[in-house]
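note to self: the first set is below, dont mix up w the second
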Amino acid sequence: MRQCIPVFAIALVLGACGESSNGPPAPAADASYAPKLQQQLLDAKPGDVIEIPAGRYAFDRSLTLRASGVTIRGAGMDKSVLSFKGQKAGAEGLLVNGDDFTIENLTIEDSKGDGLKISESRQITIRGVKVQWTGGPSTKNGAYGLYPVKTSNVLIEDCVAIAASDAGIYVGQSRDVVVRRSRAESNVAGIEIENTINADVYDNVATGNTGGILVFNMPALSQQGGQIRVFKNRIVANNTANFGAKGTPVASVPAGSGMVINSNDDVEIFDNDIADNATANIIVSSVYSTGYKDSSMADGFDPYPERIYIYGNRLKGGGDSPDGLDLKALKVASMGLTGHFPDVLWDGYFNKQRTIDGQPAAGPQICLEDVSGVINADGPNGYDNPNTDIGPFRCSLPKLPAIDLGRS
């Protein structure tokens, strides 16, 4: 979550549980393979397929690929394991800068920084890749598991991300993205789509994170995101205490955030199972509730979430034990000591000068169906007069198109 920010002033912003990090000790890693793989990456040219045999291999420095048209293929997730537990040099486990790149069927463990970073590249496939920190949640873990940034035409499928100290699966400042059939567990942010245009996020599981699935626009970046669909996911019990590095913005994300939309337009949330997220199952907010000033925003940045359509989800539980003093006070004041927030929590910021086709338009167009209710936290007025009137949210919006990556 680069430049990530809290969603409310101080605090706001197991279906497929797989392997536990508390199993028997892993076998010793073989360091003799490292020079061979390093040389293969250095010599790689378009069309090369680099096969990583089954085994557990130790690396003491980052791996780097700077060629297009390359495939890195392991023998299978948990069969080909690249361990960076003793890493002494470099930040990432693997850093890639090349187009038409595929990586599949392997595991990256315990990198000093990001597990897999892919930068300024197009036509990317990440398939059957696990990135994890084997000691469980810790501030000392790397920030990102899977981390494509400034990329286009990105497919992430059948992947796993565990215990990243920022975001397990993150896509930032990118375009045309699909994240599907993956699992994010025990990260600060499970899956995060940030300042990205055109993304489908579906058939994933986000559980045991601090925040489950986040759709964010950060104010200081040149590209604003939008046209994001999040559907058919399980976003359950994301209540892990925040273990982000102290003083970093991500450290302010409240435990118990299920689905969070922040300053993003044209977002469609449907057909998800969202349950038991203790702060709120769904949060919609603006950067203004975090104390950001206009002077810190890129030219033309739109701080308000607009045209948000939430419908057809299966929601239960949640909102009973919000994280942070402000939210606890808000819950008690509006819902009583033993009450809980309704399914949707909105900070109340909207553009009073918004127009459609040159004509004044009321409200932010947050349209809600099939929810237990909504609380408007009244952020612009210091949260003094929250209300639960769902009337202004009873609307619908045109559905967004599916993302077509043009893959066979």
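second set (the one i keep forgetting abt)
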Amino acid sequence: MKKAVVLGAGISGLASAALLAQAGYQVTVLERNTWIGGKSRRVEVSGQRMDTGPALVTFPEVWQQFLATYDALGATKSAPIKNASVAKVEFTKLNEVGRYFFREHETDLPVKENHEWFAAWTRFQKQHDEITSSISTLLTAHPFDPKALPALGKMLKVYGARLTTQSYIKSLKWMPAGLREVIAIHTLNAGVSPKQTLAIYASMTAAMATQGISVPVGGVNEIPQTIAKLAEAAGAKIRLGERVIGVKKGLVTTQDGEYPADLVVSSLDPEVLRVLLGKKPKQPTGKRSCSGVAIYAVLKQPLPAGTVTHSVVMPDEPAELYAALEAAVPPKQTMAFVNYYKAGEVYPNEKPTVAVLLTAPADGKTYDLNSPWVRTEVERISKVMGLDVAIDSLFEDHIILTPEYFGEWGSALGALYGKTNPLWQSGPFHNPQYRSISKPWLRRVGASVHPGGGIPAVLGGTLISLRDLKPGSN
């Protein structure tokens, strides 16, 4: 039986372990931390459960394809293991993608019929309905897979030669300027400005509105928890609290021992893996994606009636925010996600909770609620959302994660999505690739390929990286 060692117990590492074990590999997962999920981590504040990392799930067909692949790989076993018999994630669909606040505008997405942007939004969404399935295809198919070509063709009919989000959005002269900014700012989900991202990011809002967005009952960490159960049911071993100190062909070394490996799958940050492979550490250079100041709090009382689950408070001048992030300095105003859960909503909590997620420069620094720009933004966000007091005055208790914390994962100075690559490397020619020609024994998934990216991209990338697995092949 061939042996596989998976580096990291985040979503992509666990998904890799589950598929490899089903395919007949003897699998060991090595994780330096004492929890599973990686950045998608479950924390407890004043006895209330909260999850860090992604707050919602999009493109559900990618999750279904992962489960179908798991079942198919185990079909030839003498006692086949089906995902439904091991664990199941229950999803609840939210009423809206989010509520957006921009200058004097306030709108839900999808835009409601009584809003001044409704006609323009309807036109935009209709144009993109045809390519929603194409996005799902590209998330799970290798760029050179023949079935990816029709999907690419459909998208090019929409974008034409306008390859960046900025150039495409600017071409929509019929769309109100405010709505263009709302759509364009979603490129910060990749950590960079609209001029540095492919036009596909303009389609994400329409796709999410068409399909809806979901949250696992119990929180997003239910996804890695479930995948871990699938991996272990197939025979994988997950070792927590064991730091990898070296990787080479045929062997992975930790502080506790050595693990022979016919195949190594890394979900670690590219720079972390580079050092483990024996290269010297590099000093942070070049442009980086954004970081974050993430505040997770338990509330003394509920927020006002009508507060939605996901609010997005935008800066008055998005261009200034993009420029500040590119220069790695605090912006005058930032973009913030405010994720609010009532007691018993999604999480099995007795008290309401909120996450205030501020887009921050990747500067490696630590911040608290009294840091000048954080203080200013918390008060601005509270006012924009119609609160009578600063939202932190309603906190019973909280924790805060900063660029210094995110830098511990390996991305330079806490850049959530790693360094900023040239535009042509942000699509199918991203660097590094899922596989290495010089190291056929090494596969890359998750953060090792593209830090961040969201759950569908992480799971889809795992399917692409391990696309040559055959049922019962080992």
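remember for set 2: The radius of gyration is 22 Å.
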